[in-house]
Amino acid sequence: MKYNRDGSPDRQQARHQNLMRCVKQLQQRGYGKRWDASKLGKREVSLWVDDWRTQGLSHRTITNRMVDIRWLATKVGRLDNIPSNKDIGIGLRKNAVNYGHNKAVAIDRHKLASVPERERLITELRVEFGLRTQEAIKFQHEYATKIAGYITLKGSWTKGGRPRSVAITHERQVDVLKRVAQYQQQQGDKSMIPHHRRFKSYYRDYNEVREKAGVLGHEYRHQWAQDRFKAVSGGIQAPHAGGTPYQDLTPEQQQRWDTAAQVVNQELGHGDKRADITANYIGAKTSE
To answer: Is the pLDDT higher at 287 or at 176?
Structure first.
């Protein structure tokens, strides 16, 4: 587990506990104490899932555990050997409560103005680039803006440890990046974390500040996804924003729809073959 450095400290700890639990399950099934993770594959996944079902774990819990297994599989080059959630019979997110509901909310600029500058800039990074809170707090302007026309996120900032780029497409993004650069330089901070603080404690403080001001959380990421979808598709509204059903679009529009969904999926950082997650933000391709 020496490579378990992705995500927040809490996420690292939860991942470590989950994977150690998985190893213990294999040992109870007759595997040796020095099981080689580079042999991870369908057989092991099947054993785990069978045990979890016997224990009566919910689909949500099993799905969350599979996230960590896929993380490990990625680290040891075995991701292609891990069956999909559908293949192992785990309920898809579209079956979850509120899956089909639009959660997008536009930022209230008046409320945002009441937030201190550091927390305001973090929130603006979230709003303008669709970043998770963790990613915005860990944002390092000097590193993120090395490639013209994009911001680049380190794997250590992101969920799942997946580095990614997000395009810079409008002036509000340029403006907030300029102000973030000035603020970090003035404060002597490499990221948006105060130089005398640690991420974990400041993360809690940030959320307390924004909640007190009535500034929301993940809802802005949903709004960004829908706005980005419309921009990339050339004006097609996302399903959650009241867009025309996919089956009623022309073939040319469907191609633009598919391209936009792929771009949003990548820029949200959801990884390959995870359209089910992105659909929670923009709406499902079909009504099934």
So the answer is: 176
CATH of domain 110-215: 1.10.443.10
Q: Does the structure show a pLDDT above 70 at 91?
A: no
Rounded to 5°, the CA angle 21-134-274 comes to: 65
Contact assessment for residue 155 and residue 147, using Cβ atoms and an 8 Å cutoff: no
Query: In the predicted model, is pLDDT for residue 100 greater than 80?
Result: no
Concatenated DSSP letters for 120-181?
A: HHHHHHHHHH---HHHHHT--HHHHTSSTTEEEE-GGGSGGG--EEEE--SHHHHHHHHHHH
Phi, psi values for residue 271, rounded to 5°: 85, 165
Residue-wise burial string across 114-137, b where 16 or more C-beta atoms lie within 10 A, e elsewhere: ebeebbbbbbbbbbbbbbbbbbbb
**Angle of helix 171-187 versus helix 117-129 axis, rounded to 10:** 150
User: How far is 104 from 116, CA to CA, in rounded Å?
Assistant: 24
The residues pairing with 165 across neighbouring beta strands, listed in sequence order, are: 152
Name residues whose C-beta falls within 8 Å of residue 254's C-beta, 6 or more positions apart in sequence. Answer: 246
Selected residue with higher pLDDT from 81 and 264: 264
Question: Which of the two residues, 9 and 213, has the higher pLDDT score?
Answer: 213
**pLDDT band at 31, cuts 50/70/90?**
confident
Name the pLDDT band for 97 (thresholds 50, 70, 90). Answer: very low
Whether 94 shows a pLDDT value over 60: the answer reads no
- CB 125, CB 221: distance < 8 Å: no
Q: Under a CB-based contact definition with an 8 Å cutoff, are residues 249 and 189 in contact?
A: no
Specify which residues 152 forms β-bridges with.
165
